[in-house]
Amino acid sequence: MKKQCGSDSPKCLTPKCERAANSCRGLCSACYNTAKLMVDNGEASWELLQEAKLIKPPHDKAHRVFREAFSSFMAKKKTNKTRVRIATKVG
Ligand SMILES: [Zn+2]
User: Fold this and answer.
1) Distance 63 CA to ligand 1 centre (A)
2) How far is the CA of 19 from the centre of ligand 1 (A)?
3) What is the DSSP string of 14-35?
4) How far is the CA of 34 from the centre of ligand 1 (A)?
5) What is the rounded CA–CA span in Å between residue 14 and residue 26?
6) Neighbours of 22 (CB within 10 A)
7) In this predicted model, what pLDDT tens digit does every residue of 54-71 receive, in sequence order?
8) pTM
9) Are the CB atoms for 76 and 68 separated by under 8 Å?
10) Which of 5, 38, 35 is nearest to 20 (CA)?
11) How far is the CA of 55 from the centre of ligand 1 (A)?
12) Please, are residues 35 and 49 in contact by the beta-carbon 8 Å criterion?
C-alpha cells in the first residue's frame, strides 16, 4: 500500500515551507500568521491569496456558522451601545 503524500500530516501550502499545515487554510501557523498580517496591513486580501493558490478556500459551512456567530455578537454589542448611549443622554 502506497502512502499518499499529505494524507495524515499535510504540509503547508507555501512552496518551500516544510512545516505541517495546522490551520484551516492549509498553512502552518507561521505562514498563516504572515498571511493574516499582510491582510491586516492591507498588503493582500484573503481572496487574492486564494487566487494565488497560497491558501485553501474556507469551508463554506464553517464560514457561514462563523459569520452567524459574529453577527449575533455584533447585534448584541450594538444593542448594548445604543442602550448605554440613551442612558447617558437621559442621565
Ligand atoms: Zn508554512
Assistant:
1) 22
2) 5
3) STT--SBP-STTS--HHHHHHH
4) 9
5) 9
6) 14
7) 998 877 676 678 888 889
8) 0.58
9) no
10) 5
11) 10
12) yes
